[in-house]
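Inverse folding, one chain.
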């Protein structure tokens, strides 16, 4: 019992992801300094001055494979709300098991009321779970250490309308403990990142919905967090603004950030997410990478960068039929753009054309 309590008191941090031993200064229950040797699976401790040779074990190999650390992990996470006037209980989230690796973009999909926002609030420590547990970088979500590593953009952010872009970021930066030249440098970096150079001196009351979402992303990044939670980041934004926000999410991924966002706009999620989880009625019903979930295994598609004549199509059918395929199973069609792709292509072409005319002497 004494040894068990000693170890729990000495080592209250997740084990180092490195696969070899290292020394950690600590104190035992008697407040005397000791040294703790930690590797992937073992904890060995002894008082200073009585160190002994530690036999080499297989897990301490420098060339061992290092697992990707988890940014978020939940086990049986559940949230229930009592409906006292009906004498019933509303299960907003039911036994969620989830793992999100560091550095990936993870999408939470589902209709309204499916548990997406409840999941984000639990991971942010804004509400208390009824059952189960959640960890953010191995820490409780409501701990100060975890919150320092997290940024959040709610679905309907509220900002002071009389402040301009720079003043808004300066306000939130000071709330996060960022001050002085470091804050001013950070503001310049974020204004450039979200593309608000022309709106930084305008009051937020004059911002469009897309501009408000981008300044919201900037304030969520002001303290340079490792993990970003975005609740419906493109809700109510026009297609062009939505495309710009998706580009920002991809930039954040390139910067090594972990992004978890919720949405019910499936096509937008498909363009940025590495993995997704689909929710329905408070439960996670499907999870996986987009490549594995969207791959159609019952057919093969061949893309030819030219229009084929009827004669060429017939000759290709005959050639494929010689390999055992039925000619009736072979179909030819032209690729189609989505309406959003057509819209973005047209608007961007017009914008670029106008910019070129303006730049010409």
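Residues assigned per position:
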């Amino acid at each position: 019992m004494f040894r068990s309590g000693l170890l729990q008191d000495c080592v209250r941090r997740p084990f180092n992801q490195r696969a070899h031993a290292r020394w950690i200064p600590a104190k035992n229950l008697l407040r005397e300094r000791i040294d703790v040797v930690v590797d992937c699976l073992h904890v060995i401790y002894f008082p200073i001055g009585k160190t002994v040779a530690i036999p080499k074990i297989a897990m301490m190999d420098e060339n061992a494979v290092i697992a990707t650390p988890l940014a978020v992990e939940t086990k049986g996470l559940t949230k229930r709300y009592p409906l006292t006037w009906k004498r019933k209980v509303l299960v907003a989230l039911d036994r969620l098991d989830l793992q999100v690796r560091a550095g990936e973009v993870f999408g939470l999909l589902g209709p309204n009321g499916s548990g997406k926002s409840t999941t984000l609030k639990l991971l942010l420590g804004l509400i208390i779970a009824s059952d189960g547990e959640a960890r953010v970088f191995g820490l409780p979500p409501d701990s100060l250490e975890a919150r320092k590593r997290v940024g959040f953009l709610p679905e309907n952010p509220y900002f002071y309308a009389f402040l301009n872009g720079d003043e808004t970021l300066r306000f939130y930066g000071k709330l996060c403990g960022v001050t002085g030249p470091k804050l001013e440098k950070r503001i310049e970096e974020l204004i450039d990142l979200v593309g608000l150079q022309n709106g930084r001196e305008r009051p937020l009351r004059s911002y469009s919905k897309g501009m408000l979402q981008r300044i919201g992303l900037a304030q969520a990044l002001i303290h340079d967090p490792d993990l970003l939670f975005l609740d419906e980041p493109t809700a109510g934004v026009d297609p062009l603004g939505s495309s710009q926000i998706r580009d920002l999410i991809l930039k954040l991924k390139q910067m090594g950030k972990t992004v978890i966002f919720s949405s019910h706009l499936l096509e937008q999620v498909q363009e940025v997410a590495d993995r997704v989880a689909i929710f329905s009625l408070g439960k996670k019903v499907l999870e996986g990478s987009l490549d594995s979930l969207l791959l159609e295994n019952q057919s093969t598609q061949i893309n030819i960068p030219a229009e084929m004549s009827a004669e060429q199509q017939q000759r290709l059918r005959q050639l494929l039929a010689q390999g055992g395929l039925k000619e009736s199973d072979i179909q030819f069609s032209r690729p189609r753009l989505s309406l959003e792709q057509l819209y973005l292509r047209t608007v961007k072409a017009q914008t670029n054309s106008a910019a070129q005319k303006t730049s010409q002497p």
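The longest strand covers residues 70-83. The radius of gyration is 27 Å.
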